[in-house]
Design a protein that fits this description.
Blueprint: E1 7-12, H1 15-26, E2 29-34, E3 37-41, E4 48-53, E5 72-76, H2 80-89, E6 94-100, E7 105-111, E8 117-123, H3 128-135
Parallel strand pairs: 1-4, 5-8
Antiparallel strand pairs: 2-3, 3-4, 6-7, 7-8
Protein name: Glyoxalase
Organism: Rhodococcus oryzae
InterPro entries: Glyas_Bleomycin-R_OHBP_Dase, Glyas_Fos-R_dOase_dom, VOC_core
């Protein structure tokens, strides 16, 4: 199997608010949109995002009332301090302050208007993700 694109679909109350957040602060482009739906992408390797309004009929009946909750959308970047400064200057609240974990991961988090947690990560050592996985 060869994966050519990855997409995460998130069910939210206000599609327009999350779409605007991802476009304005995270460099996404709105590829397609309709009532209760938006498809976002970036020109780099970041995951594509589909936003669906909670209750939309395209979802199976038992799934229509679910929220995008309990997940973290993480982006590994090579300029974490710059991204933190940019996000702050744009007026976005940092919901987890910049910190460094003992295994070499540096990170901070923001939260979009619908409660989607977005984490920015930078590794102090290129081998750190493998080393961290070995410790688990």
């Amino acid at each position: 199997m060869q994966v050519t694109t990855s997409t995460i679909s998130l069910t939210v109350d206000d599609v327009a608010a999350s779409s605007a957040f991802f476009v304005t602060h995270l460099g996404y482009r709105e590829q397609a949109a309709a009532d209760g739906f938006a498809s976002l992408n970036r020109p780099d390797a970041a995951v594509d995002i589909v936003l669906l309004q909670r209750g939309i009929e395209v979802l199976p009946e038992g799934f229509r009332d679910r929220h995008a909750d309990g997940l973290i959308l993480a982006f590994t970047v090579d300029d974490l301090a710059t991204q933190e400064a940019r996000i702050k200057s744009e007026g976005v609240e940092i919901t987890m302050a910049l910190r460094e974990e003992p295994w070499g991961e540096k990170l901070f988090q923001v939260t979009d208007p619908n409660g989607i947690v977005v984490q920015f990560v930078e590794w102090a050592d290129q081998d750190a993700p493998e080393d961290a996985a070995a410790l688990a």
